[in-house]
């Protein structure tokens, strides 16, 4: 299995330049580096940057569940590289159908398969203090499931991976 980590230093709130920076890093990769890649992983809140201190501060960057600029980039990149892609994004969920209080906000990650189809949308379960200023905890627990070409996988974000005893 070949896993690529696209690590860069996104600037908070500079979405389009962050998208361009990610593309530039990928474009510098050799054909051999990208060939046979099974999974490409990007950071938490990859294109918005991280450390929003309030809901008001992050509001302009919230994306609809699985259909914002981050999901579009993931789909396009998955098709281009023929690999699965995981990217973190700030999710806005319209819940008016089930609850009069809407919307809800989450620190989320989407995983898209080689065909550009969404496999899962995971919501961070254990928030860091800065996340608590705008996001709710995901209530479904960690994503776990079988992904073709990858096998059985689990997904968490940042503090999710920290032991509660440490």
TrEMBL record:
InterPro entries: C-N_Hydrolase, C-N_Hydrolase_sf, Nta1. It holds the Pfam family CN_hydrolase. Residues 1-166 form the CN hydrolase domain. This is CN hydrolase domain-containing protein.
């Amino acid at each position: 299995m070949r896993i690529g980590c696209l690590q860069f230093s996104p600037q908070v709130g500079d979405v389009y330049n962050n998208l361009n920076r990610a593309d530039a890093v990928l474009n510098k990769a050799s054909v051999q580096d990208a060939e046979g890649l099974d999974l490409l992983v990007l950071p938490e809140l990859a294109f918005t940057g991280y450390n929003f201190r309030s809901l008001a501060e992050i509001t302009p960057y919230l994306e609809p569940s699985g259909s914002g600029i981050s999901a579009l980039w993931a789909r396009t990149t998955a098709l281009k590289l023929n690999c699965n892609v995981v990217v973190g994004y700030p999710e806005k969920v319209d819940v008016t159908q089930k609850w009069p209080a809407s919307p809800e906000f989450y620190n989320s990650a989407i995983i898209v398969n080689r065909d550009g189809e969404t496999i899962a949308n995971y919501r961070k379960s254990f928030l860091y203090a800065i996340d608590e200023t705008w996001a709710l905890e995901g209530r479904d627990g960690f994503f776990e499931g079988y992904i073709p070409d990858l096998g059985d996988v689990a997904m968490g974000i940042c503090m999710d991976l920290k032991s509660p005893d440490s």
